[in-house]
Amino acid sequence: MARTRNTQLAAVVKETGWSQTQVAAAFVRVAAEARAGELQAVTRSHVSMWVGGTRPEARAASILSETLSRKLGRRVTLEDIGLAPAGEASAPPGWDSDTLITLKTLGGTEMDTARRRMLATSAYSVAGAALPSGSWWDKVLTGARERAPLVHDTVTVGHVEAVREMGAFLSRRDQRLGGQAGRASLIAYLREDVAGYLGARIPTEQIRRDLTSAAAELTYLAGWMSFDSGEHALAQHYLRLATRMAAEADDPPLAGHILRAMAHQAVDLGHRTQGLQLAEASVAQRRYTQAHPREKALLGVVRAKALAAAGRKQPALTALLRAEDDLRQADTTADGEPGRVFFFGEASLAHETACTLRTLGDLTGAENQFRRSVRTRRVQQHTRTHAVTLGYLGSVQARQGHLDAAITTWTRALDTMTGIQSGRARDTVIQMRRALSPLRGRGGPAAAELDDRARQILGRVG
Question: What is the value of pTM for the model shown?
């Protein structure tokens, strides 16, 4: 049977001004970001077949729509390119999606192996990083206050405390063991218990706000753990939902905390414009002014990182100084400090400062700050981040030609990774092997031994 040419896809490709070869090259870059290794062999002939009427498999279609979206600067859906599954809408949960439905839907997706695999290997949506309008925040709060209960059960302060306790426990576990440790338990708890509380009768406005804030922090944690696992599309959905829930709770500092995580993700993926927009939003108005000094420091240092990625050196350095001042004040002001910032201290500030300086080209300054981070971190409580910091430190040393020091540092990093389940830790090992590859001849047996050990550990980390 003859295939029908996909005229919708052909029209969108024509709109980009790209040749089919250029479409394929851009597709491969997005596939690499999404860790869809099997799609990195896509060539012009694949694009030609898709335009000719051959349907790509679901993940390829999703990555193709994101590739075209980035080129055109607007969201290109599967419907737009004639590739939507029959009877299904391709749009992911958006800013205006119902909170309870989205929480249940995402939880159900995680429990369905096939659906979760497809979403986990989907591409991060650049269009999805765009913030809603200013009026959206007030509209969301009003809607949450007017939401009718779905069941007759009544929520109490005890339920709120239970949600907070679960968040504190899993957050500390994430810091030690990485984002894949305990995430299944978190998703099940969100989908069943937390969604049930949010849909129950809530007797007072204060309990409603406290419960929604606690639920938003747990949802944020699900997003952060997905980010750490390298599942960026899934992380983006959870972080966007958590931001909505923070707005429903009328909790500006929490919204800032979540937007800071979204900025961190965007910058790490190389989306500088979106990263800076999200970072600026995280420190806007009440999100910064009402935050505790420790949280202000966290928001500020990620903003510095985003400014550096955008090539704005002096504002980035100024933001670093302000973050240091905020953290200094936090060390003398414990009143009102939210539990979610328990991890952020001198070691974390030094780590993010080093990343900022590295981006700005100051490798000596970056090395000094990474060393400071390693020296001051409580390793047993923050093992995952310690391993990542050591990996980054080794890379900076190698870039400066200090190969023996880099090998020693990288060896410590691998020693630290035992038992860690983290995509970011795994990425540091991949980067380590890439940096070692052209240097093995100069590194001698020590470099060869380290590379062999790194190759073996990749199968056990994340």
Answer: 0.88
